[in-house]
Write a structure and sequence with these properties.
384 residues, alpha+beta, Naphthalene 1,2-dioxygenase Alpha Subunit, Chain A, domain 1, Rieske Iron-sulfur Protein, 2 domains, seven-stranded antiparallel beta sheet, binds FE2/S2 (inorganic) cluster, binds fe (ii) ion
Length: 384
């Protein structure tokens, strides 16, 4: 059964959140892939996952198969992971290569996407493919932008310019110099959950002291401020979050260079619609790229950074390791919880939920963002 998104009541969503069906409906998911993920600015991974020339990162997200490549001069490019002969994927796993060779019929490509060769292109005439015949057969590039080391793509290539899209968040974070982000780790997760529930959970500050009591006290969670940053960016702030939290590390990691004293305590985290989850502590940054695979199955990549050159040195090996362990433990707790919530939140009984005025306003705003963006697109008016 499909659901008519255009008939979902905004008032009801404001009161109870999105109806259960949108968390398990395959047609809704298909529309999300086309509209929210292809036409918006979705993240696919982190720049520092590509360290060396020839590093290739394949990403499956919302029905699209992409590759990020670091080319010979150290620049990153993003392409469809789709051979220009008959559409085979070129790469299945992260790897380092001098050229890309399609496993199906061995067409090969430069790291800049251009076609190098196509075996026996002229059949029995064994001459190499001509320059003229190579033209227009390179890998299809994808529009992208890198911000705070996060690789964002706009597959349809017609979204608003990224700088404009991200401007309100840039203004909010202008006191944080982001030119010294050092990747500590990237960890992959998978869960039987609709992507929206993973996002919703990230924007849920209420559960943190209960589910992650090792990382946050109820007292610190009560310090929460809602951040309605733009039509596509929502967040939360713990004004003195770090000071009331149990210490994650024995020796404190150095904070952002030159961060004002009044900013050295607060933590902020954001959802950049649709799938980028981004957490800024004075001493570390965490990004989670949520990658919808099926209606009720998502993968995630969680990357942890320290934010200061000194923090990346050998002096802080133990602290980086503890930080990475704590953040991954927290995410594992969420993944296990979300596997269970998928079943119940997508059931009819969940349509009688009650969003709480004190805690759930950012979640409500995310659900309304989703409804607005789905309804602004002609392809969403599916009939029941
Ligand atoms: S599909 Fe790639 S070479 Fe044929
Ligand atoms: Fe959580």
């Amino acid at each position: 059964m499909t659901i008519n998104v255009s008939q979902i009541s905004k008032d009801l969503v404001a009161q109870r959140g999105l109806p259960a069906k949108v968390f398990k409906d395959d047609d809704v998911f298909e529309t999300e892939c086309d509209v929210l993920f292809a036409q918006g600015w979705a993240s696919i991974g982190c720049g520092q996952q590509l360290q060396n020339s020839g590093d290739i990162l394949p990403v499956k997200i919302a029905g699209h198969s992409l590759i990020a490549i670091k080319n010979k001069v150290g620049e990153i490019g993003v392409f469809h992971n789709v051979c220009r002969h008959k559409g085979s994927p070129l790469v299945d796993e992260p790897c380092n290569k001098r050229t890309l060779v399609c496993p199906y019929h061995r067409w090969s490509y430069e790291l800049d996407g251009s076609l190098i060769s196509a075996p026996r292109f002229y059949g029995s005439d064994n001459k190499p493919i001509s320059h003229k015949d190579k033209l227009g057969k390179g890998l299809i590039p994808v529009r992208f932008s890198i911000w705070w080391d996060i690789i964002f793509v706009n597959i349809s290539a017609d979204a608003e310019p990224f700088d404009q899209f991200i401007k309100p968040l840039n203004e909010l974070l202008k006191d944080y110099p982001n030119d010294h982000l050092y990747q500590v780790s990237t960890t992959d997760y998978a869960g039987d959950v609709n992507w929206k529930l993973a996002v919703d959970n990230f924007l849920d500050g209420y559960h943190v002291p209960f589910v992650h009591s090792q990382a946050c006290t109820l007292e610190s969670a009560l310090d929460q401020e809602d951040l309605f940053v733009s039509e596509s960016i929502l967040g939360l702030r713990l004004v003195s979050g770090a000071s009331k939290k149990p210490a994650k590390t024995s020796k404190k990691l150095p904070h952002f260079d030159g961060l004002l004293p009044e900013k050295q305590g607060s933590q902020q985290w954001f959802c950049i619609f649709p799938n980028t989850l981004f957490f800024v502590d004075p001493c570390w940054v965490q990004t989670i790229v949520v990658k919808p695979q099926k209606t009720c199955f998502s993968t995630e990549s969680l990357t942890v950074y320290v934010v200061n050159e000194q923090a990346a040195s050998d002096d802080f090996i133990d602290e980086r390791s503890i930080l990475q362990d704590v953040l991954n433990e927290v995410n594992q707790q969420d993944i296990e919880l979300l596997d269970k919530i998928q079943v119940t939140r997508a059931s009819e009984a969940a349509n009688n939920g009650n969003l709480n005025d004190a805690w759930d306003q950012v979640n409500k705003a995310f659900h309304l963002q989703w409804l607005t963006k789905m309804n602004n697109q002609p392809s969403t008016s599916r009939q029941s």
